[in-house]
Amino acid sequence: MNVAVAQRRTVGLPRWSTGNWVIARHVARRAQLVAAIWGLVFGLYVIATIEGFVKGFPTHDQRVQAVHSLQSFAMLLGPLRRADTVAGFTSWRVLTAIAFIGAIWGLLTSTGLLRGEEDAGRWELFLAGQTTKRRAAAQALVGLGSALATMFSVTAVVTILAGRLPAAHFSVGAALFFAAALVSGGAMFLAIGALTSQLSATRGQSATIAAAVLGAAYVVRVFADSSNALGWLRWLTPLGWIEELRPLADPQPMALIPIVVCVLACAGLTILLAGRRDLNASLVHESEGRLGETRWLRGPTSLALRLSRPAALAWLAGIIAFSVLFGSVARSTVSVLGSSPAFTAALGRLGVHAATEGYLSFALFLVDVLIAVFAATQIGAIRDEEAAGRLDNLLCRPVPRARWLGGRLFVSVCVVVLAGLLAGFGTWLGATTHHTYAPLPNLLAAGVNATIPGVFVLGAGALVFGVRPRFSAVAAYGVVAWSFLIDLIGSLIKGLDWLRDSSVFTHLKLAPATNPDWATATVIILLGVGMAALGLVAFQKRDIEYA
Hints:
Number of domains: 2
Distance between the termini: 45 Å
Order of helices and strands: HHHHHHHHHHHHHHHHHHHHHH
Number of helices: 22
Number of strands: 0
């Protein structure tokens, strides 16, 4: 009998040890590839910034002058600390942007792999094994932590290589601290997204709540950097904690404490709530809507409009607020940058001779990127409809597949165009209220020009959705990330024009400083429409894929 017990223990322990981490391995496997790609993007962004700063401002006097010219951007990117050095400028230029991008990756990843898996019914399979809801949530958090470690490792390796560049000269320790600061936004919002997944009724609702937290964090940080008297506000926002790390300039490791506390607190609450709530239940209930709202639902297109409305309104509000902000600071920014020979020379190389229009063009270029990211989120939402099984409720009725997908894409294109028009109007409104002359028709045309990448991303995502739906969201985000990175690197390093041509952003004119190239824009739109048409045909011929 003792022998039998010993045999059961010998056989059982390895099986329990292997199965105990199946959820962690599943989550890590789903998240690690994208995390590694973004880590590489972050590291290459650091190298591109170093190369661009060194070539653009080769002497110390030019760097000092550039720092004075860039003071107006402190409200958007944070105060400049030792920015006349390569390391200080790189930290200032890169940290806020990458922290924000990492936060978006974090909240989308955690909500997708927690609440998204639960919505799709796959979480029930995990809980059917020898585990509890709290252990399952803990394992999922371990898997997310593994993906974050992958992102940090890739970012750290490339950042260390960047520190070895002749002009950079920052140590391995400084590079590791910088890499930790770069991925800290992703770490916090992985945890915040995991927490909202326990609070919300659906993946979309949990992502929306986490995105609202991110937006509020950025707004508080903007106010904190608008005045020295409000600097204490940085300690009230996650993005402010990242800014207070001050890597490569004046490192403050103590600022890691609130970041670590935030991650641990959200992780602890996630595990606690996971054990207390029922599967598919939530603390924040999804709105059931009013009876009158169903009267105008006459088909899949109107249903798509209703389903897309909350996320679309949030994105539109954010884009118009962003545009008004940039328009309102145009006068003060141009008054400073206009006295900089380096800024004037940079505009001249682009064929831009009016500083105000040049600044507004750069602001609207950022809107290009935001609209393209929104288009990628729409492809992700379309894929979620199929993966979660909700599409079955429509296809079991006399609803053609092409009509459903075409309706979703049509609604997305309409929102993209509306976002561009609102961006142009918001920029004009902000500039006009602060006594900066900017013709409304020109800014509206520039806003329409900003929608071209979004249309292309929708087409590319629809094509992949029709052929390989599992990779459709990754492909859409990949087009945006690749285009942004290649356009950035190609604009800073000469001799890469052939590589820049692969970026959709490269083929757009900087409007309103220059007139939009409507012929090229038409070609890009036709490419997007053509890819969408191929995606529709492929979608009609393939099977529905849930996983």
